[in-house]
Design brief:
A 6-stranded parallel beta sheet has the order 5-6-4-3-7-8, sandwiched between helices. A two-stranded antiparallel ribbon has the order 1-2. Helix 1 crosses helix 2 and helix 3 runs parallel beside helix 4. Strand 1 and strand 2 form a beta hairpin. It has 7 helices and 8 strands. The radius of gyration is 19 Å and the shape is globular. It has 255 residues and is of the alpha/beta class. The termini are close together. The protein binds farnesyl diphosphate.
Length: 255
């Protein structure tokens, strides 16, 4: 358990923060951030990427081991064409600028979701960033791109059915371990399930993010819009998480 001691007020009172091993964030509110400033929606996404950068570096410094960010959902394709097209191009310029920071901070990037549906240049930008950071040994930054929790469960089911059909697996052997090994988060092993899911912008739902994996996650909702979400907001979320009593269906289990 990573501990991060923080002075919480002007007194000498300190709180040992319990850092979530796997932190997942639903980055919401870019559009509203822009609208409040009479800007178009894409201006919100442009500022949203700066928050991605700041929060990645802050999370790594605090000792988070996996940071999963919901960047584009399987449902986001239904947005206006110009916004989808902007969001698809965003990773190309962003990763180019961001990779040196990832390397400097020993962060390893990976991506989950159906990447094959992304434009080829976007797929390449993602693959290049994954490749350039693959030797880093610090925090894993896991981008969800064209990801949906239900689609993840369906593709895992299809892959298990295929294994049963080819005789590699007997249907009676399918248990939690086999199922989890077929999900998009399998490479994260013990860290596949987020300990804490944060959603910005006041909405209180998971919107198809890590549906299976968040079964026992602690949830934290804040009214702060994603472009305004900063290190202090992250600390507040982690303070709230620190005070939670996670029981995983049992009695008073502190992890
Ligand atoms: C939700 O805000 C945000 C998104 C759907 C996109 C999130 C993407 C980023 C922050 C950019 C970083 C991603 C990469 C891969 C570089 P919204 O548009 O739904 O806001 P609204 O609810 O206020 O309309």
């Amino acid at each position: 358990m990573a501990l991060f001691t923080k002075k919480i007020d002007d007194t000498d009172q300190t709180l040992d923060l319990k850092i979530p091993h796997h932190l997942a964030i639903i980055m919401d509110g870019n559009g509203r951030w822009a609208k409040k400033r009479l800007l178009n929606r894409v201006a919100g996404h442009k500022v949203g990427v700066d928050a991605v950068k700041k929060i990645t570096i802050a999370a790594q410094a605090m000792g988070v081991e996996v940071l999963s960010l919901y960047a584009f959902s399987t449902e986001n394709w239904s947005r206006p064409q110009d916004e989808v097209s902007f969001l698809m191009k965003l990773p190309i310029s962003f990763f180019e600028r961001f990779v040196p920071d990832l390397i400097a901070n020993n962060v390893r990037m990976q991506a989950m979701g159906d990447l094959t549906a992304l434009p080829v240049a976007t797929q390449k930008a993602v693959a290049d960033a994954v490749q350039a950071t693959q030797k880093n040994t610090g925090m894993i930054l896991n981008f969800a791109l064209n990801y949906g929790g239900q689609a993840d469960i369906i593709q895992a089911t299809q892959s298990l059915v295929e294994q049963v059909k080819t005789g590699q697996l007997d249907a009676s052997q399918i248990d939690q371990e086999h199922f989890e090994a077929a999900l998009q988060t399998a490479s994260l092993g013990d860290l596949a399930n987020p300990d804490l899911v944060i959603r910005t912008s006041g909405e209180q739902r998971l919107s198809n993010f890590l549906t299976y994996q968040s079964a026992y996650s602690e949830l934290y909702f804040t009214d702060t819009l994603w472009p305004d979400f900063d290190q202090q907001d992250l600390q507040k979320a982690i303070e709230s998480y620190t005070k939670r009593d996670r029981r995983f269906g049992g009695l008073n289990v502190r992890k």
